[in-house]
Amino acid sequence: MIELRGLQKHFQVGEQVVQALDEVSLTISAGEYLAIMGPSGSGKSTLMNILGLLDQASAGEYLLDGVNVNQLNEAKRSQLRSEKIGFVFQSYHLVPRLTARENIELPMVLAGVPPRLRQQKLDELLEKLNLSERGQHRPSQLSGGQRQRVAIGRAIVMRPRMLLADEPTGNLDSTSGAAVTDLLESLNADGITLVLVTHDQALGARARRQIHMFDGQLRAEPNG
Amino acid sequence: MANLERSLTASFMMAWADTFIFVSQVLMRQRFRTVVLWVAIAIGVIAVNLLTALGEGAKSYVLSEFNVLGRHTLITLPGKKETRGGMPPITGESPRALTLKDAQAVSRLSGVKTVAPLVLGNIEVSYAGKIRESLVMGSSRSFFALRHLVLARGQLLPERGRFKGEAVAVIGSRLQDELFAGKPALGEWLRLGDSRFRVIGVLKTSGTRFGFDMDEVVIIPVVSAQSLFNADGLFRLFAEVRHFSQLDAVKQQMVELLKQRHEGEEDVTVISQDAMLSSLQKILDTLTYAVSGIAAVSMLVAAILIMNMMIITVSQRRKEIGLLKALGASSALVRRLFLAEAGLIAALAALSGWMLSHLVLLLANNYFSDIQFHSPWWAQAASIALALGLSLLFAWLPAQRASSLAPVQALQGKTEQAQR
Question: Least packed by Cβ within 10 Å: which of A52, A119, B254, B369?
């Protein structure tokens, strides 16, 4: 599903050129459960940006479902992102002024999904996430675990092929963290490609495949 | 991979109705921010409108003081403008007076539509024991139209009495209030010096015109005034020409005619309003610059106010911009959302500021009857265009900058505590 070939990314910081990604090559198949691990500054975020089509590589190729995304313009990449990729963040990033329901609806609104379809989809999804009671609550009225469930709902509402989760349990206690992990893994079991970015060893170990990053380079291989 | 349900029906173009809802939610659910922004923009518009109205009001006040005669009117004054020792004569003290016969002769010129002589004097006016020093104008019926004097009650001086004295008077509104104290003045006999005049009309309040307080005057037939003051000479002779294009020609004819009637001596001065106004041009120009300067300064203040508010409020939402992009919004869509938001609030705020400034001007115009405050159309248009333009520009610039940042960085790191 995803193929990275010799991906490079460098930033100009003052006089210096920082090599954030150095010859990264990686293949991710559809439905995979992958953990990208490494210390901060290792290039995880940059890789996630690029995988999520939020940033472009300086050199190298990125094929998403056979399409070379480097050759697409910004509007086309946004469309691909909307269609195929969902993000889950450590600090949820819900829009505070919107209710749980409206937060989940937002990607559909941005993508121009007709309102009737949206409501149908929302009822379904809130039910599935056990949030039916909480639909009209603002994020500030929800617990951390509930917020992250809303965020996951928002990430999957467009039925993406791939979920990019950046420390999804980082702000949660162990119980709600476990619930969120379960939810993500059940989504993976349903066929979604799950890419986890974390430096939590225990969480990373749950993935079927781990990749370690260090100084912009990949350091490990599938663990069978 | 497992067969997922296909993606939802999506046009990948956010609907305008949804854009409107999204933007309204931003404005309604972040009320404090909306109110602050609203006030800033409205104040900008109000400042421009009120300050220019103030300047324009002052300017039009000066203009109206000199404008009451109209462009069709020629004014003849006795005496020739020339440099002599001491002060030039301003009243009818030249060797040969301007007389009613001259006025009649002028009225027969083909280009002249109508003439109005004027004799002036101060005299004691009394009624039922109340005495008041008042300005008496002796003239004719046509004088009222020439000076834009309107009656509140009664009638004008009689046409047939144009060149003969009748003991009738039209009085100013305040004079009526003072002397008659609310009682009807029409038909009452007023004493001017030693003579008695019957009040046949009362003027509408018109304030000070051309240096004379028209609310305090007594207007009587010119011949009556001549006998009252025991003087033959006219203070002024107003003549209205039929067509503006003939103004200069008629002026020439009048000078010739009066020269001929005064034994070949050119001893009158004929001026037109334009000539008077041209001598005022410097003052008016200065006033125009002052008004423009006031407008420019107030616009600058408004601009800075709006710019700051917009930059701050949009910059605060960098995180949201990053999020919208992560959720599939293109840079163009992010720009559209922020422009729609800025446009909506700017339009509403500018409109309310515009209406409020009109309300204030309306009240001010009711309160001060002498000066009329009207902000010129270009200032109104500019203030609204400025509010809209600046709001859009300074929403667009930070939104553009924020949407070109890598969104994940904006979402990660320092702002993590902000989610509440």
Answer: B369
Is B358 exposed, middle or buried, given 0-12, 13-18 or 19+ CB atoms closer than 10 A?
A: middle
ipTM, two decimals: 0.89
A140/B420 Cβ within 8 A: yes
Q: Which three-class secondary structure state does DSSP give residue A114?
A: coil
CA dihedral (A118, A119, A121, A126) positive or negative: positive
CA distances from B305 to B93, B108, B317, B375, B388 (A): 62, 65, 19, 21, 13
A75/B332 CB distance under 8 A: yes
Nearest chain A Cα to B414, which residue? A91
pTM for the predicted model, two decimal places: 0.67
Number of residues in chain B: 420
pLDDT at residue B412 tops 50: yes
Is A111 within 8 Å of B6 when comparing Cβ atoms?
Answer: no
Q: What is the pLDDT of residue B419?
A: 32
Task: Find the length of chain A.
Answer: 224
* B343, B16 contact by CB (below 8 A): no
Cross-strand partners of B219? B137, B170
Cβ atoms of residues B76 and B107 within 8 Å: no
Show the 3-state SS of chain B: CCCCCCCCCCCCCCCHHHHHHHHHHHHHHCHHHHHHHHHHHHHHHHHHHHHHHHHHHHHHHHHHHHHCCCCCEEEEEECCCCCCCCCCCCCCCCCCCCCHHHHHHHHCCCCEEEEEEEEEEEEEEEECCEEEEEEEEEECCHHHHHCCCCEEEECCCCCCCCCCCCCEEEECHHHHHHHHCCCCCCCCEEEECCEEEEEEEEECCCCEECCEECCCCEEEEHHHHHHHHCCCCCCEEEEEECCHHHHHHHHHHHHHHHHHHCCCCCCEEEEEHHHHHHHHHHHHHHHHHHHHHHHHHHHHHHHHHHHHHHHHHHHCCHHHHHHHHHCCCCHHHHHHHHHHHHHHHHHHHHHHHHHHHHHHHHHHHHHCCCCCCCCCHHHHHHHHHHHHHHHHHHHHHHHHHHHHCCHHHHHCHHHHHHCC
Closest chain A residue to B322, measured at CA: A54
The pair of three-digit structure tokens given for residue B235, joined into one six-digit string: 């203070």
Pairwise CB contact (< 8 Å): A87 & B326: yes
- State yes or no: pLDDT of B405 exceeds 90: no
Whether the CB-CB separation of A38 and A199 falls below 8 Å is answered with yes
Q: With pLDDT > 70 as the criterion, what percentage of chain B qualifies?
A: 86
Residue A23, both tokens: 């010859």
Point out which residues pair with B114 in neighbouring strands. B240
Residue B400 pLDDT:
80
Residue in chain B lying closest to A56 (CA): B406
Q: Residues of chain B whose C-beta is under 8 A from some C-beta in A? A: 1-15, 18, 22, 25-26, 29-30, 319-320, 323-333, 406-409, 411-412, 416, 419-420
- A80-111 tens-digit pLDDT: 999 999 999 888 999 999 999 999 999 999 99
Q: Are the Cβ atoms of A83 and B14 closer than 8 angstroms?
A: no
